Amino acid sequence: MLLEGKSIVVTGGNSGIGKAIVLAMAAEGANVVVDYVAHEDATEQLIRQVEAAGGKAVGVEADISRSDDLHRMMQTAVDSFGRLDVLVNNAGIETRQSLLDTTEEDYEKVMAVNMKSAFFASQAAAKRFIEQGDGGLVLNISSVHEDWPMPGNIAYCVSKGGMRMLTRTAGVELGQHGIRMVNIAPGAVDTPINASTTSNEDLLGKLQDAIPLHRLAEASDIADVAVFLASGRASYMTATTVVVDGGIMQGSVGL
């Protein structure tokens, strides 16, 4: 198993890409802390699913915009499984508003969940990794929109652009400690956050036509890449982004 015995924290881990990462990493032998802010029943069901497959997982309810809750998440991993090896900053939200329409409240909410949480969770994990003395990985679930403008969803794009530079800068800073920082930048993924598109036949068709592989990603497509990056097979990768988009950024040029 690629992740045998590793202790992993996944924020926003009870749905969408986060859930797929939990299942994929547990299937490869990891012990997983599932962070959630709502739907405790979904978290409990996910934990039962992991345990039924022979894995180990625990849930922790936490407000990831609060540093004390983030430290409590890391401590839960240590208390439950003896150490922390990987942090997956997966939780994210969007408002789908333009610059002219975004309120201060909307902006602050997106930045708190997407950017502030990733920054201070990475800090908390890095301090734990340094205490342990044998490195670790922070894996950020970013977006193609860390690079690719999306008019009408500006706060989300700004937050993912910030995550891009967090990964590059912190990856350089932390390399001396054997700590890696890597982003995964998905394109369009068939998850609840994209339900407004996937439930509209015309919109879905246009989106699929813009993707060279002519399909949206499944959450498991992203999770498989996360497993690889968390394994020893990716030990020389840091301070960078892995794009998993079916070619949409290239295929849409000129449209």
TrEMBL record:
One of its GO terms (molecular function) is oxidoreductase activity. Keywords: Oxidoreductase. InterPro entries: NAD(P)-bd_dom_sf (IPR036291), Sc_DH/Rdtase_CS (IPR020904), SDR_fam (IPR002347). Gene3D superfamilies: NAD(P)-binding Rossmann-like Domain. Pfam families: adh_short_C2. Belongs to the short-chain dehydrogenases/reductases (SDR) family. This is SDR family oxidoreductase. It comes from Amnibacterium setariae.
